[in-house]
Amino acid sequence: MPAQPDGDVPPLDGGLPAAAIARAGRDTFSAYVHVPYCRVRCGYCDFNTYTADELGPGANRADYRDQLSHEIALSRDVVAGTGLEGRAFDTVFFGGGTPTLLPAQTLAGVLGDLRAGIGLAAGAEVTTEANPDSVDAEYLQMLADAGFTRVSFGMQSAVPHVLRTLDRTHDPARIGEVVQAARAAGLGVSLDLIYGTPGESLSDWRTSLESVLEHRPDHVSAYSLIVEPGTRMGMQVRRGELPMPDEDDLAEKYELADEILAEAGLGWYEVSNFSTGDGTRCEHNLAYWRNADWWGYGPGAHSHVGGVRWWNAKHPRAWADRLGRGASPAVGRELLDDDTRALEDLMLAARIDGEFPLDRLQESARPHISRMLADGLLAPRTLVEKRIHLTLRGRLLADGIVRTLSDHLV
């Protein structure tokens, strides 16, 4: 269970240092809104989320809209006079938690505050995460009317016993209903899957993938389950109550996902993400992977502008208390040096097909690139386009590729 911090760090002024202003990009600018509420805590979840019982007094959903509005106003004041005002948000993402536990009017109101306070670019991508059992047709239509453009449903699996292991509460049959309702409202649809759940067979995983295709989503995310030590599932694994799959099992499931999704026209563009084309990629996540600028709102939200990263008080009560005192909700920040930024660029961009240019590597990387080509980790067009293109095998070994190349950055 998340804990209320014992103490609070001295308040920051909330301002941006000159170095951040000077290095801030003029391209994609994104907003992330964290909604930390969940009806049930899933056993594998290590995110900054809380059930009603965990929140305690001083933090509740009813006040959340006003608190977010206050934080958005503070961010507007921070950028005023810096030369960064006038940058509108190109992407907005509501994540959690379960954002759709809040009334649709609340999410619409927060989006309106972002539009009024900072601005939304023409054609902005606006996404919310949703559990299949937390929305209906009326709710989704209200989101679309407010300016939301896509919804990402936490499907995770189509197999009941896998969902039970994950502590997911929705009926798999519900997916088809909400996907149809989202499409009727004019929203783009992404489905999130998890593979590698204890007890999940290859046949189970195939069932989930085939179920996904029945719903014809624009976008699919397929993530390998990571079990953190402090979670309930982590303790079950440590006690030997749940068997974790081995690396070969995970690789086989990833290969199956790539095969089935590609045959259906969902091509990979990032190691764990597949879409029907450029227009259906998640531009918000691409902004993260490109180390663009983004502003995070809500408890525990992180932000990044011009190489400065800062983060808010984690517990909703501590976050709300700071806002109530007129203080910045941020409790820490760091200025990333050029070497750190270059390393992060490699770690993130190498996972995107054709994103990382070879000219950001020293000449000393050439033998390693040649070896990776010979070993079938990089596609031949890597040399033609002078950008990293991972093969299927390379995607499975992406972390090792990054480690090798990290010693040869310009």
UniProtKB/TrEMBL annotation:
Similarity section: Belongs to the anaerobic coproporphyrinogen-III oxidase family. HemW subfamily.
Recorded GO CC terms: cytoplasm
Matches recorded under SMART domains: Elp3
InterPro entries linked: Aldolase_TIM, Coproporphyrinogen-III_oxidase, Elp3/MiaA/NifB-like_rSAM, HemW-like, rSAM, rSAM_sf
Domain Radical SAM core stretches: 23-270
Record's keyword terms, sorted: 4Fe-4S, Chaperone, Cytoplasm, Heme, Iron, Iron-sulfur, Metal-binding, Oxidoreductase, S-adenosyl-L-methionine
Top-level taxon: Bacteria
Molecular function terms, GO-annotated: 4 iron, 4 sulfur cluster binding; coproporphyrinogen oxidase activity; metal ion binding
Subcellular location: Cytoplasm
CDD domains linked to this entry: Radical_SAM
Protein name: Heme chaperone HemW
UniProt function note: Probably acts as a heme chaperone, transferring heme to an unknown acceptor. Binds one molecule of heme per monomer, possibly covalently. Binds 1 [4Fe-4S] cluster. The cluster is coordinated with 3 cysteines and an exchangeable S-adenosyl-L-methionine.
Keyword DNA damage: no
Main location: cytoplasm
GO BP annotations listed: porphyrin-containing compound biosynthetic process
Keyword Membrane: no
